[in-house]
Amino acid sequence: MHQKKLLRNILKIKVNFSSTSFKGKGFPKLNYFMKIVNKSNNLLPEYATKGSSGMDIRAWLPEGPITMKPGERALIPTGLFIDLIRGFELQIRPRSGLALNYGITVLNTPGTIDAIQN
């Protein structure tokens, strides 16, 4: 379903929506390259392990670490810019270990990024 192609700080992911999970549900056969531009100095999004269902992203903190008090909220940049096809979304979810061990989570989980937020 996914193929990756790296171009310097640009990641292109080929997404094929003709898999068996979409058959007979009104989805046309669709091949789409989703482009992710990375303006940070972090690694591009990547699957942490074989069989991971989502890619890991990292915080981009060019002005240094952020210290937060309990219950405090902050918008944490990633430096990623994503070209989404209209009608689809990208979801941001917390890693279970970070949430359990450190209380780091995503407000309104899953966080939704759609095409109109580009």
What does this entry look like structurally?
The chain is mainly beta. The chain has two domains: 1-44 and 54-61 and 75-83, no CATH class; 88-118, no CATH class. It has one helix and six strands; from the N terminus they run βββββαβ. It has one helix at residues 96-102, and strands at residues 2-7, 10-16, 31-38, 80-83, 89-92, 111-114. The strands form two sheets. The chain has a four-stranded antiparallel β-sheet with strand order 1-2-3-4, with no helix packed on it. Strands 5-6 form a two-stranded antiparallel ribbon.
Chart the SSEs and their pairings.
Layout: E1 2-7, E2 10-16, E3 31-38, E4 80-83, E5 89-92, H1 96-102, E6 111-114
Antiparallel strand pairs: 1-2, 2-3, 3-4, 5-6
